[in-house]
Design a protein that fits this description.
mainly alpha; 5 helices; 78% helix; 0% strand
């Protein structure tokens, strides 16, 4: 059972790493869709660049057991901000779309890093 949990969490880490780098890179490079999405919340190109860089950094932090919690915390915080911004605009659909991605880092924190020593 413990091996299955390690495998599941490893897959979740790889998925989160892929999504974080993909979306972070889109923000850093100024993808028009990202700029449009953040633009409706009055967040300019510099703000989008900042959030993209933070997303990429947080994704990389997931790979290492000592920074795993911090990477998940930053990711969850960014996604919570997105959910709050969607709700501020009364966009329930947008908030609901982000919700599973906000829960993912919390589940990964609960499962812990697969390479972390148990009980340490």
């Amino acid at each position: 059972m413990e091996t299955a949990i390690m495998v599941i969490n490893s897959v979740l880490i790889l998925f989160s790493l892929f999504m974080g780098i993909k979306h972070g890179w889109g923000m850093v490079t100024g993808d028009p869709k990202m700029l449009e999405m953040f633009g409706k919340w009055d967040i300019g190109k510099t703000g989008v660049l900042f959030f993209g860089a933070m997303g990429i950094i947080a994704s990389i932090l997931l790979l290492f057991p000592k920074t795993f919690f911090l990477g998940n915390f930053i990711t969850a915080a960014i996604l919570l901000m997105l959910v709050a911004l969607y709700l501020q605009q009364r966009d329930i659909k947008g908030a609901l779309i982000e919700l599973p991605f906000m829960i993912l880092p919390l589940v990964m924190i609960y499962l812990q890093h697969p390479l972390a020593k148990q009980g340490a």
